[in-house]
Each structure stands twice: as structure tokens, then as C-alpha cells.
Amino acid sequence: MADTSNDWQQERAMSPKAFERAIADLGLRQAQAGRWLGVSERTARRYISGEAEIPPAQVLLLRAALKYRIRPLYPRWNRDGN
């Protein structure tokens, strides 16, 4: 039987370049990706630069959206921040 102990970690990890490609493939800009993932635009930039690790739940969400061609919906903010 093959050792699959690392499969879980590999599926739930994403490189900064893969994150950048994924949000581009989904048609999102950094700010939109941040809102969709529930983080700030700055955090999305930190994911792309490699300054912050992308949480496994967000990686799985991105992979599922790409695989099943789910069009992300994200909140739109008014100019006054609401």
C-alpha cells in the first residue's frame, strides 16, 4: 500500500505563484480575491509575495472553484467603506 501521508499536506498547500495564477484564472484582482477569501487586499498581496502562508481552507476553496468552474461572488464595498 502506498504511503499517502503527505497527500493531505500537498493538496492543502499552494505556492505564491500558484495562488496568483489561480486568482487570475478565476478572473479576480487581488482586492476581489481578498474579499472573496475573507481577508484584506494586503493579506492577498502577502500571499502572492510569499510573506504569508495561504491557509489550507483557502487553498481548498480556490482548488474547488477552479475544478468545478465556480464563479466567485465577492462583496462590493461602497466608497464610504460600507
Word description of this protein:
- This protein is mostly helical and 82 residues long.
- The protein is built from 5 helices and no strands.
- It has a domain at 14-67: 434 Repressor (Amino-terminal Domain), CATH 1.10.260.
- It has helices at 7-11, 16-25, 30-37, 41-49, 56-67.
- It starts with 6 loop residues before the first helix and ends in a 15-residue tail after the last helix.
- The mean pLDDT is 87.
Task: Provide the low-confidence segments as ranges.
Answer: none
The CATH class designation of the domain at 14-67 is Mainly Alpha
Note the gap between the termini. Answer: 54 Å
Residue-averaged pLDDT: 87
**Helix amount, in percent?**
40-55%
**Sheet/helix structural class:** mainly alpha
Series of H and E elements: HHHHH
- Determine the CATH topology of the domain at 14-67: 434 Repressor (Amino-terminal Domain)
CATH architecture classification of the domain at 14-67: Orthogonal Bundle
- Largest β-sheet summary: none
The DSSP helix count reads 5
The coarse silhouette is: globular
Counting DSSP E segments of at least 2 residues, the number of strands comes to 0
C-alpha-based Rg, rounded = 14 Å
Q: Would you summarize the structure shown here?
A:
With 82 residues, this protein is mainly alpha-helical. The protein is built from five helices and no strands.
Give the topology.
Blueprint: H1 7-11, H2 16-25, H3 30-37, H4 41-49, H5 56-67
